[in-house]
Amino acid sequence: MLKKGSEIVIGLAGNPNTGKSTVFNCLTGLKQHTGNWSGKTVTNAKGNFVLEDMHCVVYDLPGIYSLFSDSAEECCAKEFICSAKTDVMLIVLDATSLERNLTLVLHILELTERVILCVNLMDEAKKKGIIVDDKKLEKELGIPVICTSARSGKGIEELKKMIVSAVNNKVSFSPNKTVFSHEIEEICNDFIKQTEHIIPEGIDRRYFAMEVLEGDEWFLNMICGKLDDIQMAEVLAREEYAEHFLEQSGYTREKLKEERTITFLERGQCIAKEVVTEKTEQAKKRERFLDNLFLSKKTGIPVMIALLGIVFWITIAGANIPSNLLMELFCDMGEKLGIFLKWCAVPDWFYGIVKDGIFLTVSWVVAVMLPPMAIFFPLFTLLEDFGLLPRIAFHMDGLFQKAHAHGKQALTMCMGFGCNSAGVTACRIIDSPRERLIAIITNNFVPCNGRLPQPLSGKIT
């Protein structure tokens, strides 16, 4: 049991658009933006709060769908879970898409047993006629489950109490881990027996065996820092032996990874069917209509272009009014500043630096760039909250592939119209280093609002 004044570490994981950042803010009280700008949480956000005299540190991990790929977000999350000594892993799920979210949960349970599930967006699920049986979900997974609606704060206090109970060992964690085929389980157990004495502290034995059997390069590089040369050589030798075992059973590393992925997906589907009462027929029809509208080849792209066009028009036309007001304000302030400097009898060179240099530059940047950014980014975030940006990337991927780029670059280029710095930073969401570099270089040619011709904003009213 932890003493008062102790520090506890909490990892916060989940799929994108599950309200993870909102839960983070509710726990820590931080006024962090809760929309999902592209790549906003690629790096870990850190927050602190006090819970019953215990100092809690929360790490908001990147929004990810699984731990199978080598994307920057997933590597960041895997590294934290494998290397950091967390007291509790808190996984946020979307109650309206439980089946899709459970894949990540099942994978994280392979790494650590101390997991609390936060089934968020219960208010949205209720609107769509979806009922989640949290008690049955708790029984299926063998870990604590708390239902919340983070935007209204409902369930957050219960979540905090569960965290306290977990760190004080008043809650038992007995996760029902995913069972794979008999051949895979046999090979895995055999590998564990032979390498148990060199498995680094803090890494689950079963997860260690599975990752080494798959030959995961990221995982092997990560454990290199935890093992000496002799131990690493033994791991690699055992890996070759296990690979031979796999081949004898009719498996390859690719087939092993594929079967693990399919098993996680199938188990997630089975659990979702058991614990979720399906939405009403009316809600299903509405969802099918929206999917057909936004994902269809005939209507999807025109609708996306129209939506982005509306966003750009509102940004350019709407920014004219505050820009003109700010320019008038700064012009008036500039005249008064000039009169004041002349009254002070400052040298001409000082007058030029302060009024014509610093003041005019800052006032122009604020008057011209601030209003469009203040309008564009909230609208862009609104599209993200409605789930439209992933669909834009989906539709644009084929076109961008012809230029050897990635469909996600469509999102970073859109952000570039608001601010190129944000657009270039958002390129981190692209998995491939080559495609990421292409996006970073070409994103600089997108005319942000600071470089758009002044007559353009003057003509559109």
Question: What can you tell me about this protein's structure?
Answer:
With 461 residues, this protein is α/β, with parallel strands linked by helices. The chain has 3 domains: 7-167, 3-Layer(aba) Sandwich (Rossmann fold), CATH 3.40.50; 182-276, Helix Hairpins, CATH 1.10.287; 300-459, no CATH class. It is built from 19 helices and 8 strands. The protein has a 6-stranded mixed beta sheet, sandwiched between helices. Strands 6-8 form a two-stranded antiparallel sheet. Helix 3 links the parallel strand 4 (88-94) and strand 5. Helix 16 packs antiparallel against helix 17. The N and C termini lie far apart (65 Å). Mean pLDDT is 82; it is low at 31-41.
Kindly list the characteristics that best describe this protein.
9% strand, 461 residues, two-stranded antiparallel ribbon, 61% helix, Rossmann fold, alpha/beta, Helix Hairpins, single chain, six-stranded mixed beta sheet
In short:
61% of the residues lie in helices and 9% in strands. The chain has 19 helices and 8 strands. It has helices at residues 20-28, 72-83, 98-111, 122-127, 134-141, 156-167, 182-195, 205-214, 217-224, 229-248, 253-275, 281-295, 300-343, 348-385, 388-402, 409-418, 420-426, 433-443, 454-459; strands at 7-14, 45-51, 54-60, 88-94, 115-120, 131-132, 145-147, 276-277.
CATH topology of the largest domain: Rossmann fold
Radius of gyration, whole Å:
27 Å
What's the assembly state of these chains? single chain
Q: Considering the protein shown, what is the CATH homologous superfamily of the largest domain? A: P-loop containing nucleotide triphosphate hydrolases
How big a fraction of the residues is strand?
A: 5-15%
N→C terminal distance: 65 Å
The overall number of domains is 3
